Every structure is written in structure tokens, then in C-alpha cells.
């Protein structure tokens, strides 16, 4: 099953992982274990994992190739929104060699 991963630099990986699991848990089966610093996301189209380590939050999603971009988008978009103040950037790397999505806070153009 195709897989995509992202390493998101942050001083608060546990906080963001917990917030992401809690928010997504309203619609899917999502679990965050504070003690181990790991979590899982069970989507209908695939699954995801969250791993907090010093200085970074590791994200991974896996599913059918046709669903990979959607999984990247859901996880990445929400995390960047939660971490807007910290200017989090989520850059997905797919194991298929195809480029993954990139999520970053887009400041509104005052034009």
C-alpha cells in the first residue's frame, strides 16, 4: 500500500498531535497516547500515524494510490491551520517517488 511521510519541525509535537487526533476524532477513529507520544488515525480510505519526537512531529499516511493525496491533504491542512502561529510546514514525501503535497500557512494578499 502506498505511503507518504512528513517530518514537521516544531517545539510542541505532542500538543499538535493531540490536537490533530482530537479534532479528526470527531469524524474518524483517532487515538493519541500522551505517554508513548504516538497516535493513529483510521480513515475509511486508509490510515495515519502520528509520532512526537524532540523537535518534530512525524506524520505518515497510507492508502490506495488514488486516495493518498486526499489523506495528505486532510492531515496536512488541519495541522497547518492549528499551527498557523508557529508557521508549521508539512511537506509530504511519497514512497512511490511521486511528489507529495506541501502545506503551509498562506497569508492573505491585502490587494
Can you describe this structure?
The chain has helices at residues 13-24, 68-82, and strands spanning 3-9, 29-33, 38-43, 46-53, 56-63, 89-94, 99-104. With 111 residues, it is α+β, with helices and mostly antiparallel strands. The chain has a single domain (3-104), classed as 2-Layer Sandwich (TATA-Binding Protein), CATH 3.30.310. The protein has a 7-stranded antiparallel beta sheet with strand order 2-3-4-5-1-6-7, covered by helices on one side. Strand 2 (29-33) and strand 3 form a beta hairpin. Helix 1 crosses helix 2 (68-82). The longest helix is centred in the last third of the chain and has 15 residues, at 68-82. The model has no long low-confidence stretch (mean pLDDT 94).
* Low-pLDDT residue spans: none
Question: In total, how many beta strands?
Answer: 7
**Strand order within the widest sheet?**
2-3-4-5-1-6-7
Q: Which structural category do the helix and sheet elements fall into?
A: alpha+beta
SSE order: EHEEEEHEE
Percent of residues in helices comes to 10-25%
CATH homologous group name: Alpha-D-phosphohexomutase, C-terminal domain
CATH architecture: 2-Layer Sandwich
| Range of strand content | 35-45%
Whole-number radius of gyration? 13 Å
* Total of domains: 1
The CATH class turns out to be Alpha Beta
Integer average pLDDT:
94
In short:
The chain is an alpha+beta fold and about 110 residues long.
Amino acid at each position: 500500500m502506498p505511503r507518504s511521510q512528513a517530518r514537521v519541525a516544531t517545539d510542541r509535537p505532542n500538543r499538535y498531535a493531540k490536537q490533530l487526533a482530537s479534532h479528526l476524532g470527531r469524524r474518524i477513529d483517532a487515538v493519541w497516547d500522551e505517554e508513548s507520544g504516538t497516535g493513529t488515525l483510521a480513515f475509511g480510505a486508509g490510515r495515519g500515524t502520528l509520532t512526537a519526537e524532540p523537535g518534530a512531529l512525524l506524520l505518515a499516511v497510507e492508502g490506495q494510490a488514488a486516495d493518498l493525496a486526499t489523506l495528505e491533504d486532510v492531515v496536512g491542512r488541519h495541522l497547518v491551520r492549528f499551527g498557523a502561529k508557529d508557521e508549521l510546514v508539512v511537506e509530504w514525501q511519497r514512497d512511490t517517488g511521486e511528489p507529495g503535497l506541501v502545506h503551509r500557512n498562506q497569508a492573505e494578499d491585502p490587494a
